[in-house]
Amino acid sequence: MRTDITPTWDGVSRLCFRGRVNVMLYRVEGIVIRSMDYGEGNKIVTLLTKTNGKAGVLIRGAKKVKSKHSSLAQPFTYGEFVYFRSSGLGTLNHGEIIESHHVLREKLDLAAYASYAAELTDRSLQDDEATGFHFEQLKACLTSLGEGKDAQIVIHLYEMRILDLSGYSPELDECVSCGNVVGPFKLSPHAGGILCSRCAGKDPGAILLGDGAYKLLRLFRRMDMRRLGTIQVKPETKAELKVCMRKLMDTHLGLQLKSRNFLDQLDKLI
């Protein structure tokens, strides 16, 4: 049987089998954002890739202890994946780990935060919607968690990036009702940003912002995950941030995430 392989610049090759449906060979950088058992010894992973959006890939034998591909199916793994796909689910041919992020699976609190970031990514993006920027932001998020940066701050910054990429970034520079730039302000998720003292009555549910929380929200609004350094935040300011980000996420995305429920339970225990 004759096979013609036509390579392209973006890491995808077209394998043309005479008399058969074309099969595409993909070589991508990807992060495992979901992993599930399939059959007796296999796993199906969902990858957030750098060049091809989200991709579902079958990894045969991944549940077997001696499988050379078992580590590639672990959540949060960042690697290079080579897989065949004609339509629907792909099948892994080869892979190499770039960063295993094993520490994110070994520590319960980090596993909870990383799982939330992964599930949020998976649920908020359509398969063909994800871009290279989405990939870089998640990669930076997981790296920051692994480096020991304040996990709650890392996650709130990532939530803001998801809101921004989803088209729901809040207006934090001026009152969304009258344009006033003089505080104090309240955050109105329903109005899509801040309200000044003259307009705050238009939303009885608006959240009063302390100076620290307001400054951090404005910082998060503009900051790339890859630029996050070490930030020391007071516990009361972190509590304000959590309320604000929860309201923004619930109002605009409305996702019911199992990982967030677990994270809340863990916070109560800690």
The total domain count is: 2
Rg over alpha carbons: 21 Å
Q: Report strand %.
A: 25-35%
Helical amount among residues, as a percent range? Answer: 25-40%
Please report the total strand number as a whole number. Answer: 10
Q: Which architecture of the largest domain per CATH?
A: Up-down Bundle
User: Which fold does the CATH topology of the largest domain refer to?
Assistant: de novo design (two linked rop proteins)
Order of the strands making up the biggest sheet: 3-4-5-7-6
Note the overall shape: elongated
Low-confidence stretches: 1-10
Mean pLDDT: 91
Structural class: alpha+beta
The end-to-end distance, rounded to whole angstroms, is 62 Å
* H and E string: EEEEEEEHHHHEEEHHH
User: What is the tally of helical segments?
Assistant: 7
CATH class of the largest domain reads Mainly Alpha
Q: What is the CATH superfamily label of the largest domain?
A: Recombination protein O, C-terminal domain
- Mind summarizing the main beta sheet? 5 strands, mixed, barrel
Description:
The chain is of the alpha+beta class. 34% of the residues lie in helices and 26% in strands. The strands form two sheets. The protein has a five-stranded mixed barrel with strand order 3-4-5-7-6. It has a three-stranded antiparallel beta sheet with strand order 9-8-10, with no helix packed on it. The model is unreliable at 1-10 (pLDDT under 50).
